[in-house]
Amino acid sequence: MTGATGARRRGRPPRTESADTRDRILTAAREEFSEHGYEKTSVRGIAKAAGVDPALVHHYFGTKEQVFEAAVAVAFAPALNAPDAVAAGPLDGVGERLTRFVLGVWENPATRAPLLAILRSAVNNDTAAAVFRRLVASQLLRRISAQLDLPDAELRAELAAAQLVGTAMMRYVIKLEPLASADLEQIIARVAPVVQGHLTQP
Known about the structure:
Shape: elongated
Structural class: mainly alpha
Number of strands: 0
Distance between the termini: 80 Å
Oligomer: single chain
Radius of gyration: 20 Å
Mean pLDDT: 81
Helix content: over 70%
Order of helices and strands: HHHHHHHHHH
């Protein structure tokens, strides 16, 4: 019988369905990159994990590198508010605000898990590292340096980021003791002055 109620209409899927499919692919991609690393992850594997045809992965994102970049962007999104922490008060307190914000993102299990998944791929593959570096530079460091009306602002922002990323790596990825189990406030008290120095000292 033609025109039956509930018959599926051909053409593009509804917008909500498209968004759900896209989110499912991104979630699967993050898990695949985390479990297998960038090199051993394939578009076909991502599609299988998401329960979709590989053509849909290409349709929404393009190449594997572009899928990874999209997954990085989603995982890194909470940290992109860091420039707001820089601008939220006087310059003499910027180190403490930025340190508290960045480590707070890592401290939260909900935001830490996707960051860990992506970071593991980025440290083991040059292509993945380039994607991660490009996003960090364009979306985070340049925005932070724009808030600093100081000489060498971009270098200052990079050194501050290196301090914070290094601390996060040792605490949350490598889990080096006693840093891994130290009280967060104690870490902030020690790291924030160093970050402050990178950002504001002559």
